[in-house]
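Hey,

The postdoc asked me to send both predictions to you directly instead of through the lab channel. I've kept everything plain text so nothing gets mangled by the mail client. Protein one:
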Amino acid sequence: MTPTRSMSMTNGFDPAQPTRLGVTTSQLMQRRERTLGAPYRLFYQRPVHLTHGSGVLLFDDEGNEYLDAYNNVPVVGHSNPRVQRAVNDQLGRLNTHTRYLTDGVVDYAEELLDLFPPSLSQVMFTCTGSEAVDLAIRVARLYTGAQGVIATRHAYHGTTQATVELSPALGPNRTPSPAVILIDAPDMLRDDPSTTARDFACRVEAAIAEFQRRGIKFAGLILDSVLSSDGLQVDPIGLLGPAVNAVHHHDGLFVADEVQAGFGRTGSQWWGFARHHVVPDLVVLGKPMGNGLPIAGVVGRPELFDRFSRETRYFNTFGGTPVTVAAAAAVLTELKERDLLANGERVGHLLRQEIEMMTSSNPAVAQIRAAGLFLAVELVDTSTLLPDPAAAAAVVNHMRDNHILIS
């Protein structure tokens, strides 16, 4: 029997390492491990015991203040007053499952779909991004009559049985499926920028050819639109275009996973795929959609959903309930009225400039990549130019100790 390999998480708590924790925090961690079990991992070598948050700030049990530069779920801020009022008001009026006719979900769907290309004119709601990816893959496979799906080698797309197969970032102890092929993502640091888009498309073509060799029909390509789990690969503009063209040439579908990049995190555009001037067949939404309430969804072309509806049944008890929709609608209002996309572009530009200036003389800082407030710093071993996870962990934990939360 092949032994399983252990998994490390650069920003994760390792109970085997010595750490300095207060009595209250240590006791809470012991209770958590006893009741929730080992799968519930914590961030940072000194986990943060949070009690409340406001805007961009979080506060621990001793009253210390932290700048939250990591958590993209509360996209309009922790304890946002508009979201809080909308949820409270709706909860006091009506909250039921989705088989009844209600105004809010239709109003919200219309407002949401106005932010997409015209061909993407329908949405199906779920509770989580994992559910939404799972649903999108089901739709793609049923519509194409095929099974083969391509993903990138360090992708993360969810935790359901189907999405784990597409999520190598979860670790090495997964049973590979012959219907999933992983390919290398573009690498802004090491690729030739003049050929990286074409080279990526060639890897897509090679994966499609491998499916043919296996006797498996090709269904589609799923990508996090900014390749965040692959190191945040956002440039050059148009990077994904040739790969998407190759997918469509072989009658496959392109699924854009916007769970990380969506709702303006990349700055001046609502969706990560818009940076590359491509139109997906299906778009997956999640995390920031309800500012922490469980709402997610799949946006797509009507003919895909029509085919799906004719050939199978779909029902989600809590996907798009009045309360979660109220939260999601309040998020859109906040993003628009406060002009937060433009703000993200502006502040992200300033942040990148400052980090570039601070690190210009440090050879271990190989590259800084950014789109809006989505920013990555690549740290390398200067002797090999390979990624340096120990240095990354040191920076992450140093920042945590100085009350700035990053990953």
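Protein two:
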Amino acid sequence: MRERNLAMKRIVLGAVTALLAGCSGAGDAAPDPVGPSARATAAVPAPVLSPPPAATAQPLAPARQVKDENAVFSFTYSYPAAAAAIPPLRVRLEADLAAAKARLRKEATAAQAQAALDGYPYHAWYWSQKWSVVTDLPLWLSLSAEYGNYTGGAHGMYWFGSMLWDKAARVPRDPLTLFTSKQALSAAIRAPFCAALDQQRARKRAAQPQAGSKGEFDACIDPVKQTVIVGSRGGQGFDRIGILVPPYEAGPYAEGSYEVTVPVTAAVMKAIKPQYRASFIRDR
């Protein structure tokens, strides 16, 4: 199942690469996709570290939601009003929507035809992609993404993604590019992340993981190999870091996903690139 999860991450990598394309000139953008479907994860809430502030500089714009369901495939794609209100971001998301739907239509149609040739039942494929606001600051719009798909088999799969919209530069950025390195951020948050992850595991399993256990899902994982989102509790700057973990990374599929939130500490501040430190506030 880990191999299936990695394969699905590679599927979405091309789509998100296209979505983030065009910001290489800014020097910091690099996609790090990793997202759940509306069908497979109705119980999984959109990961939001904090509500957006009541006041926003962008004009009001309607949220966007597209749904197309037929005998061949089911497709859903949505993004919030805060993203729709930013014209260049809206253009990118609309292009991503069109590309994702075209890809699903092509691949699902081919799979249906192959099923007919091989004489086995065809089960409609699906793809879902939902963007949600993590936090909306004067200079940044932080978004999380939930991806899901089904291409046959016992069940679908879901995973997460993230994007920061730099309002001043008018480009998307991977949250990880705000830090001096992945290794620096990992070192700064690993201890609180691992402690919080074990607490969540204990609640889900009704048992505390045994120290030194060699079990596949007992050891801690590297937080920066998962989806990193940045949020704000006070609305003045990023003061919280979220780690979104899909199934098979920290636990079996039955345990679902994990969401761990850690504060921005002095150690985290040291790991931020100097040009972005003003956008962060130490929480502890």
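Summary for protein two, as requested: Residues 1-14, 21-48 have pLDDT under 50 and may be disordered.

Thanks,
C.
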